């Protein structure tokens, strides 16, 4: 069956030649509906019947109190800064009085120009559609705004006569209960506009980073173009979106909403989207991604669908400044560590299709390279010393240069810019590679950068802090970058603690009756084939006071203490500190063979400055529903672990760790009063 395509204006019409296609396959439904409308008195009878007896009356009347899904917001510890939003449907309701005229004109010009004149169904429009379908062979709908609202809210999308008839009756019912302005308001708050946005206000903020009132003519026309199909979303197909936008502008000129000159000027402008248009598909990393994800998991376990639909307000303990500092420290230290490791030549390649097969079509390759947008580029603001992703656009083999794009900025990478790789650009890189670069000079006027090739560290780290008096967690960083590694090393990772475990043994010893000056043996120990040694490899050390043994982290002393107080006593003490993973009932446990999550270790250590009391760690202070009703509020939960004297003694001994002669004297450079304990396991796999 041969196909012939003809371009007529901006629309493409497809006709079929060869095998005869059923004529009524195109026009039976709109024709039947038109004939029904033409029945005059019969239409009146049907309408009267349904208006008084419609089974949809209850549902339609309930629209007055309909409460669409709303976004759940997560706030920082200041109670004002929004850290994240959760929603199945990003929706920001507006009132009909706040609908800008240019937006209304754009929408009605393309979707329903007789909106204020019909009764929910439009015989004139259906007649025009039937004629057009007959004369062109196309299949075009004639749904009014009211019909679209009825279809989206109550009905299936099946193309059947029964469904269409139900749509009519529902539309008549809607028009009976509500004013035109109310119907328009409901439509503009409900309709899907792509990119996770529902309603025109959410669409404006998503695509343009503006409120609906701030949109200009071409932006309003673009929003009005999308309801016909999500395929017209500019993040999905910008060429289709522009074509449809221009049709909207032509329609606005046709109906006198704008002048032809205004339409031409607006059509000449390219589509410009805000970075927010890409946030759903490509979220940008933030310093608080890890704790926000912990909050989300907790909320979904407890409130299920209310998280994505119920408009909860969640007030957390997360401190923005603390998160930013901790994230910066983590990344700097991991990069410093990585500089001593091997170069891995690991890059993502964007020039692949959905099946991860290499693209071969030159146009597809060019389009992908030119339109790709990485979250690191949102805002196109770069600073010297910052590490961001760069896209290799091409390799100039003759000059041995790589042309790299960073959003709107560009950089030329030569051999001297290849960093620790020690390789030539033409040997290491290729078009489509995404690599990490350290930014050098930034030329804003020419939008160029100086950059040096780097690599994302392979090793991971975590930081977590707890307010000992309240149990609040202001800082939680679970790794180098949440968007590349979502495993939270602060809460999910069980790691051997090494010598960080020793304070629990020493606490048991002090509670047992020993003082910080009590002498601890450093004699060699053998249990079967196991013979512990100190960090320096020695199998013994001098007998020393307990406070010295802890400051210098002598392994032999810790084992002797556990043997002295008893393994069972030590195990019970560990449980009292809130460590859920049971301590193995063997002497090597004194050296930190047990695996513990960081959040539990920090919570356990908070006992010492809090006079022997452990407060339950938490990230959430309060949760409100969409009406401001308190669903939950943190209630003080405390556990008495030991007495104040024992806790105070342990603090004094742990201060020795950071003083002269201890294992963490470098930490004392801050000038703040500190106490703590270092810990390293075999082969330095955990520090």
How would the global form be characterised? globular
Please give the largest β-sheet.
Answer: 6 strands, antiparallel
Q: Low-confidence parts lasting 5 or more residues at pLDDT below 50?
A: 1-42
Classification by helices and strands: alpha+beta
Estimate the mean pLDDT confidence.
Answer: 88
* Second CATH tier, the architecture of the largest domain: Orthogonal Bundle
Short note summarizing the structure:
By secondary structure, this protein is α+β, with helices and mostly antiparallel strands. The chain is built from 23 helices and 23 strands. It is globular and about 100 Å long.
What this model shows, in words?
The chain has 687 residues and is an alpha+beta fold. The chain folds into 3 domains: 24-53 and 89-278, Biosynthetic peptidoglycan transglycosylase-like (Penicillin binding protein transpeptidase fold, Orthogonal Bundle); 348-454, OB fold (Dihydrolipoamide Acetyltransferase, E2P); 493-607 and 642-684, DD-peptidase/beta-lactamase superfamily (Beta-lactamase), CATH 3.40.710.10. It is built from 23 helices and 23 strands. Strands 8, 9, 10, 11, 12 and 13 form a 6-stranded antiparallel sheet that branches. Mean pLDDT is 88; it is low at 1-42.
């Amino acid at each position: 069956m041969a196909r012939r395509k003809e371009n007529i204006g901006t629309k493409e019409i497809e006709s079929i030649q060869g095998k005869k296609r059923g004529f009524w396959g195109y026009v039976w439904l709109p024709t039947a509906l038109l004939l029904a409308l033409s029945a005059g008195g019969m239409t009146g009878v049907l309408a009267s019947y349904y208006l008084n007896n419609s089974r949809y009356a209850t549902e339609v009347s309930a629209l007055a109190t309909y409460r669409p899904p709303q976004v759940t917001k997560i706030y920082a510890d200041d109670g004002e800064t929004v850290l994240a939003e959760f929603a199945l449907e990003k929706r920001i309701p507006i009132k009909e009085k706040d609908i800008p005229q240019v937006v209304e004109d754009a929408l009605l010009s393309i979707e329903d120009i007789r909106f204020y004149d019909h009764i929910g169904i439009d015989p004139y429009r259906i007649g025009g559609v039937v004629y057009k379908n007959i004369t062109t062979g196309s299949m075009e709908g004639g749904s009014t705004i009211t019909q679209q609202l009825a279809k989206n809210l109550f009905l299936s999308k099946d193309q059947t006569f029964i469904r269409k008839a139900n749509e009519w009756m529902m539309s008549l019912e809607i028009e009976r209960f509500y004013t035109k302005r109310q119907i328009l308001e409901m439509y503009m708050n409900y309709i899907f506009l792509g990119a996770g946005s529902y309603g025109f206000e959410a669409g404006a903020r998503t695509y343009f980073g503006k409120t609906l009132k701030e949109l200009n003519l071409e932006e309003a026309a673009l929003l009005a173009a999308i309801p016909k199909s999500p395929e017209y979303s500019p993040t999905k197909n910008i060429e289709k979106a522009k074509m449809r936008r221009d049709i909207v502008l032509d329609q606005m000129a046709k109906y006198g909403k704008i002048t032809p000159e205004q339409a031409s000027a607006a059509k000449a402008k390219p589509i410009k989207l805000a970075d927010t248009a890409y946030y759903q598909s490509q979220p940008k990393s933030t310093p608080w991604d890890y704790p926000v994800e912990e909050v989300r998991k907790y909320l979904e376990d407890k409130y299920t669908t209310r998280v994505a639909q119920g408009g909860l307000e969640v007030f957390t303990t997360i401190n923005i400044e603390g998160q930013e500092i901790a994230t910066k420290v983590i990344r700097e230290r991991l990069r410093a560590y990585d500089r001593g490791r091997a170069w891995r030549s690991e890059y993502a390649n964007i020039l692949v299709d959905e099946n991860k097969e290499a693209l071969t079509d030159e146009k597809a390759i060019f389009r992908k390279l030119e339109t790709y947008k990485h979250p690191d580029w949102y805002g196109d603001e770069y600073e010297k010393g910052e590490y961001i992703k760069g896209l290799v656009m091409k390799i100039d083999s003759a000059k041995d240069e790589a042309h790299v794009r960073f959003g709107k900025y560009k950089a030329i990478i030569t051999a001297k810019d290849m960093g620790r790789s020690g390789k030539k650009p033409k040997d290491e890189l290729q078009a489509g590679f995404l690599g990490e670069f350290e930014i050098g000079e930034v030329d804003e006027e020419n939008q160029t950068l100086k950059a040096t090739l780097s690599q994302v560290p392979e090793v991971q780290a975590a930081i977590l802090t707890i307010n000992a008096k309240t149990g609040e967690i202001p800082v939680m960083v679970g790794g180098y970058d949440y968007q590349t590694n979502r495993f939270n090393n602060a809460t999910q990772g069980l790691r051997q603690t090494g010598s960080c475990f020793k304070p629990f043994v020493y606490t048991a010893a002090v509670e047992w009756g020993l003082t910080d000056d009590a002498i601890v043996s450093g004699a060699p120990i053998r249990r079967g084939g196991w013979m512990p040694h100190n960090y320096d490899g020695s199998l013994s050390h001098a007998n020393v006071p307990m406070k010295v043994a802890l400051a210098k982290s002598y392994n032999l002393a810790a084992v002797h203490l556990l043997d002295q107080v008893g393994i069972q006593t030590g195990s019970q003490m560990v449980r009292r500190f809130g460590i859920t993973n049971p301590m193995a009932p063997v002497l090597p446990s004194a050296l930190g063979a047990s695996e513990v999550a960081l959040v539990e270790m920090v919570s356990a250590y908070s006992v010492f400055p809090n006079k022997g009391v452990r407060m339950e760690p938490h990230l959430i202070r309060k949760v409100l529903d969409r009406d401001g009703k308190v669903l939950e509020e943190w209630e003080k939960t405390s556990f008495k672990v030991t007495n104040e004297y024992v806790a105070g003694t342990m603090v004094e001994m742990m201060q020795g760790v950071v003083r002269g002669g201890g294992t963490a004297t470098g930490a004392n450079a801050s000038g703040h009063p500190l106490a703590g304990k270092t810990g390293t396991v075999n082969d330095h796999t955990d520090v």
